[in-house]
Specification:
By secondary structure, the protein is an alpha/beta fold. The chain folds into two domains: about 1-20 and about 330-405, Orthogonal Bundle (Arc Repressor Mutant, subunit A), CATH 1.10.10; about 20-280, Aldolase class I (TIM Barrel). Helix content is about 45%, strand content about 20%. It has 17 helices and 17 strands. A nine-stranded mixed beta sheet has the order 9-10-8-7-6-5-4-1-11. β4, α4 (about 105-115) and β5 (about 120-125) form a beta-alpha-beta unit.
């Protein structure tokens, strides 16, 4: 009941994401950049894939080499615009799409970032299909700190249902052996509660991950946009969210109780590892590339999803931000609370520094509810998420991301 209630509240709030305005005011970006300095992370979206997974809601296009090479040129121009505004990035997160789809361009782009900024850490996503000994060696040379491999499942029947027919589970195992120990952090992405997925299949995926001794796993629930949900349910059956808790209990019992530490409600690591949730590590982040989303000082910023629209704006020397929404103070406080709880804890002093007020005065009703529900506990200024609270917090984050996916779907279908 509690997960359903908190999830429905976030789902209702998430409807506001479709109220982004086309009237974009970028007048504050320069001053924000100067005051925040290197406290802003940079997300870089590479939207090209060799095949398109039917469950993915991110902005992505079938790989065409000439188009991709032109895109990397535009990325440099966009990053240059932020550099001119005073932004100094240190942590970089490459997502997609498949960032490794064109390795020479990726390498040149990372070299460009290193020449322009004081690069501390780089997290990069890829797929098992992309990993070869040569590619792994190149990624090591490029100084990738965290490599995240989108496996989704090791079960061949499930992979086929997911539309991932070109790669088998045993192939993924071999590719993970190829990268383990080669980077500071190797993460494997695994999905749970796919329509045809059984608890036994998921338990087997978890066992393979543990037996291999992989540094980190991020377990994602299904978060489809409305049309993706309709398509999945037409092909399979109703997406049964009532099963979700049973999948999550496997994570708690088989992963958390085996010595892995929760970096987020979904991400579990051996020791301290880099994670890809820049929304937790950084209060503010900039997204570059077609279809990326940023958050700066209470403003959500949405880039053009259209490759043509993105290119045209950058070519004119304009930031490709086409939608934005300024959060109210209460919305901003709640968003901050949600992201920090997703990261397993909120520091009351950090809240005070960001908002100039005590969290107990700004969000007193929310804190009372979460404490009464057993979701959080507070001690010495740290409000931490309890074991009991991990699934409800994960449910809230799932609804938040599902709202973003609805926005993505709208922008893609509208050619924005």
């Amino acid at each position: 009941m509690i997960p359903w209630f908190v999830g429905s509240v976030v789902r209702n709030e998430g409807k506001k994401f479709l109220r982004f305005t086309g009237d974009v005011d970028l007048s504050q970006l320069s001053s924000e950049g100067e005051t925040r300095g290197d406290r802003v992370s940079l997300y870089i979206h590479i939207p090209f894939c060799r095949t398109l997974c039917p469950f993915c809601c991110f902005n992505r296009y079938l790989f065409k080499e000439e188009q991709a090479r032109s895109y990397f040129i535009d990325l440099r121009k966009e990053v240059d615009m932020y550099g001119a505004l005073g932004f100094k990035f240190n942590d970089f997160y490459f997502g997609g799409g498949t960032p490794t789809v064109l390795m020479d361009e990726l390498g040149d782009f990372i070299a460009y970032l290193r020449a322009k900024f004081d690069v501390r850490r780089i997290s990069l996503e890829t797929t098992p299909r992309e990993l070869t000994p040569d590619t792994v060696a190149q990624l090591q040379t490029l100084g990738i700190n965290r490599l995240s491999v989108g496996v989704q499942s090791f079960d061949n029947t499930l992979l086929k249902a997911m539309g991932r027919t070109l790669f088998k589970g045993e192939d993924s195992i071999e590719k993970l052996k190829l990268v383990q120990g080669k980077f500071d952090t190797v993460n494997v992405d695994l999905m749970f509660n796919f329509p045809t997925q059984t608890l036994e299949q998921f338990r087997s995926d978890v066992k393979i991950f543990k037996d291999m001794g992989i540094d980190q796993a991020t377990f994602y629930p299904l978060m489809p946009s409305p049309h993706k949900m309709d398509a999945l349910e037409r092909k399979f059956r109703r997406v049964d969210t009532s099963r979700e808790k049973r999948f999550y209990d496997i994570i708690l019992h088989e992963v958390l109780d085996s010595g892995y530490k929760p970096a987020t409600a979904w991400c579990f690591s051996r020791g301290d590892r880099m994670i890809d949730e820049y929304i937790i590590d950084y209060d503010d982040y900039i997204g570059v590339g077609a279809g990326s989303v940023g958050f700066l000082g209470g403003d959500f910023l949405v880039n053009s999803f259209s490759l043509e629209g993105y290119h045209n704006l950058v070519a004119q020397g304009k930031l490709p931000i086409v939608r934005m929404r300024r959060l109210s103070e209460l919305e901003h406080c709640r968003y901050y609370m949600l992201t920090q709880f997703f990261g397993m804890g909120l520091n009351a002093e950090s809240f005070r520094k960001r908002f100039g007020a005590d969290i107990h005065s700004k969000l007193w009703a929310e804190l009372i509810f979460f404490k009464m529900a057993g979701i959080i506990q507070e001690r010495d200024g740290l409000i931490s998420v309890s074991r009991r609270g991990m699934y409800p917090v994960g449910t809230m984050m799932k609804e938040f991301f599902a709202s973003l996916n609805t926005l993505r779907e709208y922008c893609i279908e509208s050619g924005i």
